[in-house]
Every structure is written in C-alpha cells, then in structure tokens.
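Appendix B: complex inputs.
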Amino acid sequence: MQVWKTYQEENKQRFLDELLQLLRIPSISARTENKADMFVCAEAVKDSLIKAGADSAEVIPTEGHPIVFGEKLVDPAKPTVLVYGHYDVQPADPLELWHSGPFEPVVRDGKIYARGSCDDKGQFYMHVKALETMVRTNTLSTNIKFCIEGEEEVGSPNLAKFVKANRDKLKADVIIISDTAMLSMDTPSIDIGVRGLSYIEVEVTGANRDLHSGVYGGAVANPITILAKMIASCHDADNHITIPGFYDDVVESTSEERKKMGQAPFDEASYKKDLGIQSVWGEKGYSTHERTGIRPTLELNGIWGGYTGEGSKTVLPSKAFAKISARLVPDQSSVKITAKLIEYFRSIAPNGVTVNVIEHHGGEPYMTPMDSVAYQAAAAAIRDGFGKEPIPVRGGGSIPICSLFESELGLKIVFMGFGLDSDNLHSPNEKFDLFNFYKGIETIPFFHRHFAEMSK
Amino acid sequence: MQVWKTYQEENKQRFLDELLQLLRIPSISARTENKADMFVCAEAVKDSLIKAGADSAEVIPTEGHPIVFGEKLVDPAKPTVLVYGHYDVQPADPLELWHSGPFEPVVRDGKIYARGSCDDKGQFYMHVKALETMVRTNTLSTNIKFCIEGEEEVGSPNLAKFVKANRDKLKADVIIISDTAMLSMDTPSIDIGVRGLSYIEVEVTGANRDLHSGVYGGAVANPITILAKMIASCHDADNHITIPGFYDDVVESTSEERKKMGQAPFDEASYKKDLGIQSVWGEKGYSTHERTGIRPTLELNGIWGGYTGEGSKTVLPSKAFAKISARLVPDQSSVKITAKLIEYFRSIAPNGVTVNVIEHHGGEPYMTPMDSVAYQAAAAAIRDGFGKEPIPVRGGGSIPICSLFESELGLKIVFMGFGLDSDNLHSPNEKFDLFNFYKGIETIPFFHRHFAEMSK
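Resulting structure:
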C-alpha cells in the first residue's frame, strides 16, 4: 500500500470534517446578499492551504469576489503543477426540494449532501488534502500552486485581469482541474474537452404597465406570448438551432471520432429511469453522448412574467423575461455567439414590444490534446488509482477560464474530475460520494509522480 | 338641483372617508393568507348597508368567502332592483410598481389610488351611498336588494349554489351591476355585453429534478422550451387562435353592427401614448374595439420556470408553468372552451415531457338586449346625469355570474359602469376618479326613478 494511502486512512474522518466545515459557508457568488460569505469562505480556503503545508497562501481582492492563491515550492528544478478550482457555488433554490439544508451538509448512504459538495468545494479540496498527504509523507515530487477563485459560477469576470497581472506568480508547467465527472467509478474516464458558454437575459416589454386582460387583451401585445414565440423560433422540428450563423464555426467530428465515442458505455434505460423521463430528447442525428459532448446547444435556464402566485389573476403583463444559455464546441467563439444571440432576439422583436438583451457571461470551448504529457500523466494516475484504463470523453459542462489560461499562460490543462453526472450539480440535493472524495485524494499523488517523471 | 344632489354635497367628504376605510381591508380572494380579511370586509359591507338605511343585512357563509345580502323593501307593488357587486379584489403584486400602498388609499389629483378603488369596491359602494341618499331624501321609488359577493375575482365558485338555494330572497325585476367602464366621462357609454372566461394553468415536467444545463442540456427535454413552443402554437401569424374548434360557436357580428361600433370614438394615438406602445396588436381584420369587444382572445397571464433570481444559473429545469385565459363571446361556452384548451395542451405534449392542466375558473359571455326596460331606464338615467346620450359598447371584461343570474332568476342584467378602462384594474396603481364616484352616486337614483316609471 502506498504510504499516502496509509496516511489517508489514519486521517480520513478529519479530512471529511474539514470539508463539511467548508460546505457550511453559503458562498453563492451570484447573490449580493452572500458577499460577506465569500470573504469568509476565501479565508477558510487560505487557512486550509497553510494547514496542509503550503509555504504561503493569500486572499487576493478583485473587483468582485477574492481569489485565493497558495503555493508549496520544493525545488525549482522540478515541474510545477497549478491547481485551479473554485470555492463559489450555484444558488441553492428551489430550496423546498432539498431533503436537508444546502448549507447543512450531512452524510447519508455514503454520500455528502450539500451545495458545493461536488461542484467544486469537494473536488478542489481533494487537492488540498493530497498536498497535505504528500507533504506529511515526503512524497511530493512537484512544486504545487493553487488558484482557487470565487466567481466561476458567474463567469469569472475578474479572473482575466488577475491572470494577466500575475503571470509570474502563476507560472507552471500544467494546470489541473477537478471540476468535471467520470462516467462512473467502475468506468473511469478523463474529460478531454469542455464546452464554451454564452449566457444572455432577454427582457420583452409591451405596455408600460400591467393591464386588465379583458379590457386590453387581444388589442395589445402580450410580452409572454411574444417571448414564447421568440423562444419557439430558436429550434426547428429536428431540434437544430435556427439562429443564423450559429453552427458556422463548429468543427464537425469525424465518423472515426464518433465511432470511438459510441464505444463509451451508455445505458439509456437506466439514464431515463434515473431522470424519470419517457424518452431522451435532442438534435436529430446524434446520440445522447454526442448531444452533450460534440454538439452545441441552446437551453432555457429560466423564464418569468405576469402573475405567478396562487390562484388566478387576469392580467396582461407589461414584461416577460428569460435566461438563455448556449453551450459551445470548438471552434465556436463565445463572443461571436453571444453577439449573434443578442442580434437574433433584437431582430425578431415585433412592433408592439421592445426587447432588451443583457449579457451574463461566457467562456470559450476548450480541448486537451491526448498526446500531451499532462493527459498521459493523468491517464497513468487513473490506471494506478483505479486499475483501469480511463476512457477519454468530451464533457458537456463549461469551465470558461480554460482558454484564458492557455492563451495567457501558455499552459495545457488536464481535467481530472472525480464527480458523477448524477451528482445533482446546480440542482437540489447536490452530492459527492465519500468513495470518490477519498479515491481522488489517493489518485492525485500518482498524477504528480507521473507528471514529474514524464517531464524529465 | 335634485334634492339628492344637495344631500350628496353636504355629505361628500364622509362618503369618501367611508370608502377609503373599506379600501384599507386587503380582501384578496385568491390568497389563502387573506381569508380572515375577507370576513372583516364582509362585515364592513354589511354594516355599511345598515348604516345606509337597509331594513336588514347579513353576512352569509359559503364554502369559500361569505356573501353579503341586504335589502330595503318599501312597497311590494313597486319593482325591485337587485344590485350585484363584489368586495373581493385582485392580488396587488407586483407591489414594487405601486406609488403608494395598494391598501393604503390616497387621493392624488382628484383620484383615489388603491386596489379595489374601481374594481369593485368603489363602484358597488356608489349604490350603497345612493341608497342612503334616496332613503334620507325620501326619493326611493323601488325596492332594493344587494348581493355583494367575495369571490368574483376567482370565478364565483360558490355563487351558483347560493343563488339556487335563495331564489326567493333574490327575487327582483332587474339586476344592476356597476363593474364596467365608460368610454370617458365626456363620452358616457353603457356596456351591452361582457365576455366569458376560461382560465387554465399548464404544468410541463421534464426530468424529475433540476439538472446541470451543461451535463444534460441538449439531451433531455427542456420544459420551458416545450412550453414556449406550445404557447407559440396557439396563435398563427395573423393572431388568429389555432386551437381546434375555438371559433366554432362564435356569433359573427353583422357588418351593420360593426359599422355602428366603428362610430364609437377611438383615438389610437392617445391610446398608444397612454400605454407606451409603438403599435396596437391583435387579430388581423379587426379594429381595437372589435378585438376587445366582439372577438374572443387567448392571453398569457403568467409564466414561470427555472432560475428567476439575480445573475445567472446554468440549470435545465424540471418544470415550467403558465397561466392562460381565454375571453369568450356569444355563443361560445366556457365549459366547452375550457375542455378544448385542456385537450389541446395535453394533445401537443411531446414524448420527453408530461403535461398537467388544471382549471382555474370560467364564466359564460352575456349580452343585454337594448330594447329591455332595464337598458332603456339606464340610458335615460345617463341622459339625466350626464346630459348626453350613452353609446352602447361591448366590454372586454368578464362578469361570470351574469348568465347564472339570467338562467336561475329569469332576470335581465343592466351594466352601469362608472369606471374607465385606464383605471389600472388588476394592475398596480388602480384608481377611481372622485368625479366618477360622485357622478355615479348622483346618476343611480335617476335609474331607480326611470325603472319604476317604465315598469308601470
């Protein structure tokens, strides 16, 4: 047994208790009311790095939520691994669907239930505990830096400025991110790509005030109806996206690539059973894995307008709103697609209404080359940790800062995600398996050892 | 000057103060939390009838909110006028758009601002004060009964049972309702019809929980997108309603009728300016007055689903909801149209989602014959009160109990509305002009006198 496995066994309850402590902080980056919690959480992350054996760690203010930076430098001759993660979490609502409080973590049936348990506190904390393990067992074979930000869930609006101003501080040989999933614990996989993101909010205004739907209904444009027509026009009957130019820059996968993807295990019956759906859904001509991996999508994230309370109100509302986001694949550009989305919604607005579109955030798609040292070291670590060859997959989610890191720091990124798609990310009852948490802490040191060896 | 005009002049401040007191009670029938307020309001209405000189008045419980009944019987040989009105009001939200509290009535620029000021507390209270005026000035020429209910805004679910059980109590020669509008105070008009109503709520469910829009987006049906497509499919490009059979029973107006309607004054420029819109909107081939008068409509009253808070959340929601209502014209049937709406939304649900439709409430359309004694008496009263011939118009709103009264009591209904379309019914900053309030109290006694004379 590895010396670090023994260390983990002796400390596993404390590792868990520390994570639960971190999960108790409601670090929701989207909510102004949680601003103070963001600072509390950043300080806690900093303290955890120091406690784990980092030489130094600091909370660095930005115009938004602070960034935590820490490092453990063992030898300038050794390669440096930069761990990126985020301590901010998604909003927890709808609260009524949680079986226990989103910020009152509990362990049930071997799983940690809490907002952020998987995305991403539980995952970046594996690296903190792996650092501690390697330091205490004298097995650290690389230098390590940590960049843990507090704005990933709102599109990292202040990270670019930070990275550009701190190129030396962030200097490294590879970036590792644990913010993705595996196919399953029995079928380890490594994401070789994440999708990009464009996120907009559309506001449709009809009359200057809410009206009586009997007195004015039928004679004044209804912003909900107009918005519904706009949304309906975004996909055709085959669920292709109809926004002009949307697919222009999409790199189509070769039939070879698609054949390989088709070999990844997928059990449609249990997928449907888990989600409680009668049938899957999506763009005609593509499989479920392809729809979430190699194809761009356009999803409605929220909609509201008019009377939404108990009972009935015969109102013709003044306004209706929608939150809409697209997931992008290489070589789509988030900047270009956001512009196309905004232009589209403005252009289809009929005369009776005004349409205002605001931009929430975006990020470019990113792919990791499989022949890179980083990928090879990650694959070797998975083999050591899991005893199986990892399957390369393309993830559906987005980590908007990947292309920024690559262009600003000249670094490749490797994804070592230990979550599961079914971990209810961004949903009520987010969870993280204890097995995955401990397996991650055990596997990460293999990565450092392989990366150091392969970099020689 | 009429003796009752003098009495009003001497008591006008008290009349107003009493109405403001009534407007302070948040009698929102749709909200469970206001249940106690409904009883408080019913008691206040009962007390006001006694104070105004009614022989008796009572608060009568129903399975929902209570009904207030009161009467002043002067002579069995004289005709009896039954006043119908409602003390319940619409919900007040969105609260943030009110310039003063919806239940903190204020008088600004000669207008009373409060929820219910026009719809319908301010209007039925004119009849209470007209009763007082006629009693105190010995000018009452009819018997009067009052039936003031507390569930009009939620579709009067318990009124039918009450009417059927109390035919003797409600026995009368005509029903008068002040719950509609005039074209303007310079252009008095009488509604000769109200539209019917069908009101449903549609719930679309995709997956059994909210999902990460990156991990599942594009592969699982999005209930907001599906709901938007369903809503979009309800109207064609000419804004005709596409629901099968929707227009089957519509009595088309003759070109003669439409020509007459076209003579009612309508200033499109000021209509648009008042509403802050660039252009009117609606069914092709019909004017604005026709769209709200002789044509049925289908309006979205509310929509919600997914993340509707501050900032962004990349969620693929489990559910989306819409509140949808149709306004109906003769000879459409609310029961039939509601069934068609429910059937339509169920039938177009694609495989990836489940659709549940609930029925809120409905009511049949109603027309008053212009050759009736009731209409003729109302027209004569308007001539006396305003010095002008009233224009007959078809109102866009609904008073669902009209057809019930006609069928159960064998009575014709006359609408004497003193509100204005621009009174922000069902909207923030509902108002009622003091001028209209006092003019109504002054005009109503003319109606009683004419009706008594014409009934001889």
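Chain B has a mean pLDDT of 94.
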